[in-house]
Amino acid sequence: MAEKLLLFGGTFDPVHKGHTNILQAAYQQGGFDRAIVLPNAISPLKTGSPEASNAQRFEMLELAFSGLEWCSISDMEFNMPQPSYTVNTLEKLKSESPSAQLFWLCGADVIKEFHMWYRADKIIELASLAVVKRDSARRPDFAEIEAKLGKKLPHIIIDSPLYDISSTEIRRRLSSGNVISGLVPEAVEQYIKENNVYSANSAG
Ligand code: ATP
Fold first, then answer.
1. From CA 61, how far away is CA 78, in angstroms rounded?
2. Nearest-CA residue for atom 26 of ligand 1
3. 138 neighbors 161 (Cβ within 8 angstroms)
4. Does the complex come out with an ipTM higher than 0.90?
5. 11-58 pLDDT, tens digit each
6. Ligand 1: residues within 6 Å at CB?
7. What sections of 65-141 are H helices per DSSP?
8. Contact 33, 5 (CB under 8 A)
9. Residues near 41 by Cβ (< 8 Å), separated by ≥ 6?
10. Which one, of 144, 94, 95, lies nearest residue 124 by Cα?
11. Which positions make up the signal peptide (predicted)?
């Protein structure tokens, strides 16, 4: 049977418990063989560069997902053209594993404007989306997304409790000297503190 591969792209600046929880929920619910976490170099959906370096974001991901034998972290997007378009990553992964069935995990917030994604048509030829609700948003309105896209959006829905956490909020807390305990895995909190990753160095 074709390998079922769960792909999780993002900026992870820093990785937080919203990320770790949704990846585990998706893995458990989707019957995947393995998962790959792909930190981007520059997100096409965000302005500016991440605050933490590529190496720091990669190391924080390794700490956050250590112990999950089905999960690996890939630095491939660091070495690809920028910004890190999802379609380029999917094309590369598909060429490496032609028979694999690819699923791109994302929060409902990022797919509202899916029709605007670079080569959206090609993305859905290569992969299905695994969509998790975020914040107080209900299930995304797939009819609306599909109307804008002009075709069906292949997807599965991942049921997960709402985690009202964002990397932005974590960076904001750090720069104003507030605690982040409980919002990121402990080893990540420790790493941020020890390496003074974000300006105020007050991880807890
Ligand atoms: P930022 O606040 O810097 O924009 P972020 O917290 O949204 O960052 P990203 O690295 O940009 O984190 O997110 C990667 C992916 O994880 C996206 O698909 C995003 O929708 C999803 N995601 C992030 N946080 C959550 C959360 N709390 N619940 C559900 N999905 C999330």
1. 14
2. 18
3. no
4. yes
5. 999 999 999 999 999 999 999 999 999 999 999 888 889 999 999 999
6. 10-13, 18-19, 22, 106-107, 109-110, 132, 134, 163, 165-168
7. 86-96, 108-111, 120-126
8. yes
9. 54, 77, 78, 80, 82, 83, 84
10. 94
11. none
Which pLDDT belongs to residue 109?
85
Q: How far is the CA of 107 from the centre of ligand 1 (A)?
A: 6
CA 137 to CA 139: how far, in whole Å?
A: 7
**Alpha-carbon gap, residue 180 to 168, rounded angstroms:** 12
pTM above the 0.90 mark? yes
Whole-angstrom distance, CA of residue 133 vs CA of residue 77: 25
As a residue count, the chain comes to 204
89, with CB counted inside 10 A (0-12, 13-18, 19+), is: buried
* Ligand 1 centroid from CA 15, angstroms: 9
Looking at the DSSP bridge assignments, the partners of residue 101 are 4
Q: What are phi and psi of 155, to 5 degrees?
A: -155, 160
pLDDT score recorded for residue 200: 44
Dump the DSSP string for 171-186: HHHHHTT---BTTB-H
* Number of helices and strands in the chain (H, E): 8, 6
- Alpha-carbon gap, residue 33 to 79, rounded angstroms: 26
Domains detected in the chain: 4-195 (3.40.50.620)
